[in-house]
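Below is how a single chain appears once it has passed through the pipeline. First comes the sequence as given, then the structure the pipeline wrote out for it. We keep one example in the README because the format questions we get most often are answered faster by looking than by reading.
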Amino acid sequence: MILIDAQDAVVGRLAAYVAKRLIEGEKVTVINAEKAVISGNTEQITSVYYKRRGMTQKANPEFALKWPRRPDLLMRRIITGMLPKHSNRKMTALKSLKVHLGSPAEMQGNAIKPVKTSDKLARNFITLQVLCKNLGWEFKS
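Resulting structure:
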């Protein structure tokens, strides 16, 4: 089992790394999903995800793709998009994935694998927590 801390990790790079490990058959757990970052302009990123949440099908809106507001579910959705489509490997890989908000108590003793990303982002960025709050998510502890 691979334990990955998503704090200050770029979402796209992290999702690609996790998807590759899942396809290889390993079990992956991602913690601190709300602290992962997306680089770019905050308003532009928020508007892109807001438009994605509003997309519906004309024939039957119930069949439209769902984009979650919660950071852990959004991270899971992004990782799902990087897995092979129309394949049984996708479903077996998703069963091996766990994404958590924060750091659960049972994960404290395990070794955390660092993911290679840039040390510090030199440009604007937004965390998944801020993005989800802009989309309407309310964290209740």
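The domain at 2-135 is CATH 3.90.1180.10 (Ribosomal Protein L13p; Chain: A;).

See the next section for the split statistics.
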